[in-house]
Amino acid sequence: MKLLSRTEEMILLSVLDLGKNAYGVAIRKHLRELTGKKYSVGAIYVPLERLEDKGLLIVEEGEPTAERGGRSKRFFHLTAEGRQALENVRILNQSLWKNYPNTQSRLRKNLLEAV
Question: Are 81 and 29 in contact (CB under 8 A)?
């Protein structure tokens, strides 16, 4: 089983969410909207390259565009291995959390007792 870092997991999920619009800037924006955290360009592109090297993503070159100075966008797509890696992470997380089904209510109770 290929283990993913949390960032790799979030990037793969973003690629899945964005579908055919999954390119670096869109992924970065998507993660910022979801987490409220600003990601540097390198914080997105380094893991994207790593995920591609692992065979979890494939890259499709788009058409060159004038607004990008004639450069083309690189669109990312999950491979079958990428989908399996996400499923493995989901199963692992469920296993890790199985003993804590009422975490929210416990936390809320503890917070109320502390006040």
Answer: no
What are the CA-CA distances from residue 21 to residues 29, 64, 75 (Å)?
12, 15, 7
For 6-114, the fitting CATH number among 1.10.443.10, 3.40.50.10320, 3.40.718.10, 1.10.10.10 is 1.10.10.10
Q: What tens digit of pLDDT does each residue of 67-101 get? A: 666 678 899 999 999 999 999 999 999 998 888 76
Cα–Cα distance, 22 to 73 (Å, whole number): 10
Q: Three-class SS string for 41-104?
A: HHHHHHHHHHHHHCCCEEEEEEEECHHHCCCEEEEEEECHHHHHHHHHHHHHHHHHHCCCCCHH
Contacts of 69 (CB under 8 A, 6+ apart): none
DSSP, res 2: -
Q: Are 57 and 36 in contact (CB under 8 A)?
A: no
